[in-house]
């Protein structure tokens, strides 16, 4: 089978197409004939910095959709030919993948495999950020960094659906603002001035919930616009800056809570909890109309081009590899 392999860390050019044997399912696993693979910024950091890469060579890719190829010993509820979406700890950029059955989900009825590839990572992440960690309540005001990206596109819709009174987004350029405004946001601000803009929009009160995947200086500025009893949730360090230390001086005056969320850690340590969150998240698509638009598709051999677009921070919505 064809797969993308990283043999050294570096730019998009290190993504190499190779022919390797197709995997067989071990106990508790299924194999999937992949139709589409979703791209995530974590893939970029794995390729460029070795994020969560234990050894080389490494096969990137965290989420796929396709059909069950074979079922390993002890697996129940899946049969060959069934349409599924799967969350992986690498290996998704391939024609066939092996995945723990615990992180494989039946594609909801009425959804295509193309849409299915957008579900395993982004939907549970956005849902977990807002409902499990952020504790979204009716009437809350919400600020979301990266509003035009995959998680941001979904999180804006989920915040609106969850009863937020105002949803503010932050984007890196005006070109992305129109996309974000179609995704549940009331107002969208540029990254350069968002802190002043949020204070203005909230009359100086700040927001109840803020979601930040950027880290570094953006994290500090986001913390500065969280209001009394507010919750700031960090879910990444896309800026690759040194993390800020947070202590009583920052949290005590306004009784602010600061938390973190990693779907990768949850998938590895508590797949049953991931399944519960994913089930609730997928329901927002089938019952509530939440959608994650696919903005571009690439052939497997064009994975490097896809990474260049993702890394440029000019894309919106979701990027897919068409296997």
Note down, in words, how this protein is organized.
- By secondary structure, this protein is of the alpha/beta class.
- The chain folds into two domains: 2-119 and 292-322, Medium-chain alcohol dehydrogenases, catalytic domain (Quinone Oxidoreductase, Chain A, domain 1); 123-264, Quinone Oxidoreductase, Chain A, domain 1, CATH 3.90.180.
- Helices cover 29% and strands 27% of the residues.
- The chain contains eleven helices and 15 strands.
- The chain has helices spanning 41-49, 113-116, 122-133, 150-161, 177-181, 194-201, 216-223, 248-251, 263-269, 271-286, 303-311; strands spanning 2-6, 15-19, 29-38, 63-71, 83-87, 96-100, 104-106, 141-145, 166-171, 187-190, 207-212, 226-234, 257-260, 294-299, 318-322.
- The strands form three sheets. Strands 3, 4, 5, 6, 7, 14 and 15 form a seven-stranded mixed β-sheet that branches. It has a six-stranded parallel β-sheet with strand order 10-9-8-11-12-13, with helices on both faces. A two-stranded antiparallel ribbon has the order 1-2.
- Helix 3 (122-133) crosses helix 10.
- The model has no long low-confidence stretch (mean pLDDT 94).
- Keywords: NADP, Oxidoreductase.
- GO terms for molecular function: mRNA 3'-UTR AU-rich region binding; NADPH binding; quinone reductase (NADPH) activity; zinc ion binding.
- InterPro entries: ADH-like_C, ADH-like_N, ER, GroES-like_sf, NAD(P)-bd_dom_sf, Quin_OxRdtase/zeta-crystal_CS.
- This is NADPH2:quinone reductase.
- Residues 10-321 form the Enoyl reductase (ER) domain.
């Amino acid at each position: 089978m064809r797969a993308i392999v990283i043999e050294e860390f570096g730019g998009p050019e290190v993504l190499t197409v190779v022919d390797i044997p197709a995997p067989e399912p071990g106990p508790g696993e299924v194999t999937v004939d992949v139709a589409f693979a979703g791209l995530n910024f974590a893939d970029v950091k794995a390729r460029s910095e070795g994020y969560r890469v234990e050894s080389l060579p490494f096969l990137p890719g965290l989420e796929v959709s396709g059909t069950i190829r074979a079922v390993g010993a002890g697996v129940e509820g899946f049969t060959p030919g069934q349409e599924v979406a799967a969350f992986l700890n690498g290996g998704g950029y391939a024609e066939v993948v092996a995945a723990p059955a615990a992180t494989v989900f039946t594609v909801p009825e009425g959804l295509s495999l193309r849409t299915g590839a957008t579900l395993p990572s982004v939907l549970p992440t956005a849902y977990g950020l807002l409902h499990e960690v952020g504790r979204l309540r009716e009437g809350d005001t919400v600020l979301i960094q990266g509003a035009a990206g995959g998680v941001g596109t979904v999180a804006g819709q989920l915040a609106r659906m969850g009863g937020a009174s105002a949803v503010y987004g932050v984007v890196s350029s005006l070109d992305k603002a129109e996309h974000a405004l179609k995704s549940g946001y009331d107002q969208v601000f540029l990254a350069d001035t968002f802190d002043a803009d949020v204070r203005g929009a909230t009359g100086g009160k700040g927001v109840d919930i803020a979601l930040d995947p950027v880290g570094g200086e953006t994290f500090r500025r986001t913390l500065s616009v969280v209001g009394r009893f507010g919750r700031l949730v960090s879910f990444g360090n896309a800026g690759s800056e040194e993390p800020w230390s947070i202590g009583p001086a920052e949290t005590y005056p306004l009784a602010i809570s600061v938390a973190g969320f990693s779907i990768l850690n949850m998938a590895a340590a508590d797949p049953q909890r991931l399944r519960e969150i994913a089930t609730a998240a997928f329901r927002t698509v089938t019952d509530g109309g939440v959608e994650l638009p696919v903005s571009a598709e690439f052939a497997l051999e064009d994975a490097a081009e896809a990474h260049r677009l993702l890394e440029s921070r000019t894309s919106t919505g979701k990027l897919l590899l068409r296997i």
